[in-house]
Amino acid sequence: GLVGRHTPTAPPKGNPSYADIQAALNRHGYKLKVDNIWGTQSSNALADFQWRKGLVVDRMVGPKTRAALGI
For the CA atoms of the chain, what is the radius of gyration? Predict the structure, then answer.
């Protein structure tokens, strides 16, 4: 049967918007304007977040960064 078996949930459909990423960064202590515009502050916050989490600092929101952000 299914007792004790883990059923993975489906990944979120589509890519997160810039606003989703900005809001997620803010939940981790950053102070970004959630305006869905990807500028220098957003990019720098993402790079800092990746560095602090021990991720590759590539300023891309791939699977590992998404997981760390919780999105």
Answer: 14
- SS3 helix, strand, coil % of the chain, rounded to 5? 40, 0, 60
pTM for this model (two decimals): 0.79
DSSP the chain: --TT---PPPPPSSPPPHHHHHHHHHHTT-----SS---HHHHHHHHHHHHHTT----S---HHHHHHHT-
pLDDT 10s per residue in the chain (71 long)? 445 554 444 444 578 999 999 999 999 999 999 999 999 999 999 999 999 999 999 999 999 999 999 99
Instruction: Name residue, tokens 């810039």.
Output: 18
